[in-house]
Amino acid sequence: MCGAWRYAADPTTSVLCVCYAVDDGAVEVWLPGHPVPAPFLAAATNPPAWRTIAHNAEFERAMLGHILVPKHGFLPIPLEAQHCPMTLALANAYPAELDLLTQALELEYQKDRDGVRLMRMMSQPRRPRKGGDKIVLHWVFDDEKLRRLIAYCQHDVRATRAVWRHPNLKPISNDERRVQILDAEINRRGVHADRELATAARDVQLPVRKLKGEATTAVTP
Fold first, then answer.
1. What is residue 152's three-state secondary structure?
2. Cα–Cα distance, 183 to 196 (Å, whole number)
3. 54: how many CB neighbours lie within 10 A of its CB?
4. Are 17 and 29 in contact (CB under 8 A)?
5. What element of type H or E holds 19?
6. Do the Cβ atoms of 87 and 79 come closer than 8 Å?
7. Alpha-carbon distance 46 to 43, whole Å?
8. I want to staple 172 with a disulfide (CB 3.0 to 4.6 A). Which of 10, 124, 139, 176 is the partner?
9. How far apart, in whole angstroms, are the C-alpha atoms of residue 3 and residue 58?
10. Contacts of 206 (CB under 8 A, 6+ apart)
11. pTM, full prediction
């Protein structure tokens, strides 16, 4: 297990599809190799006119910054234009997880359990088959699974749109919104650490612990 930013930064991570909708429009699909969708370019170049909504937006933010922008020609979207229904749900004392949230709000969109299992299966390497190359990574992927994955993602887009518009979820205050953006900026920047100093401190502690009689293993006669 690892965080969203570590996952997105890994060289083996890729994007299989992007599903999105504009206002009440149909859910569209982008696939690698296709031109960048016009709404994404518009949201990046004219952020005051757009709001991008993504449940657990930190993950989408990481994938945009590490994969879609440098590898597929997307443009960065300013934090001021990004909004997260999960954060809004928590601020209103509702569950964070999309499935539980849709249930709590009594929405018709319920989580696609089979789609979840397929998404997790396709998101991690599989074991090599008998006689297969054990050096390279092997993935679960074919056209039918991709079509099923796209349907799952489209379903989540519809659920996210319904959650965002639900009248029970009251908007956060301007002060909370400013803190939210600052928090996202801090997470994106990270925390600087002096690795050389930390390594030296660790190395200094090792002999000190040995002098105190501390041991990592013990043998009982």
1. helix
2. 27
3. 21
4. yes
5. strand 18-20
6. no
7. 5
8. 176
9. 10
10. none
11. 0.81
CB 126 within 8 A of CB 141: no
Q: Which helix (H) or strand (E) is 219 found in, with range?
A: none
Pairing of strands 82-83, 52-53: parallel
In angstroms, how far is the first alpha carbon of the chain from the final one?
A: 38
Q: What separation in angstroms does the CA of 214 have from each of 199, 205, 218, 220, 221?
A: 20, 11, 10, 15, 18
Helix residue ranges, H only, 54-189? 57-63, 69-72, 85-91, 98-104, 113-122, 143-164, 174-189
- Joined tokens for residue 119: 């998404």
Domains, the chain, in order of start with CATH, read 4-193 (3.30.420)
221 contact partners, CB below 8 Å, separation of at least 6? none
pLDDT digits (tens, 9 = 90+) for 28-37: 999 999 999 9
pLDDT in tens, 86-138: 999 999 999 999 999 999 999 987 778 888 888 888 888 888 888 778 788 88
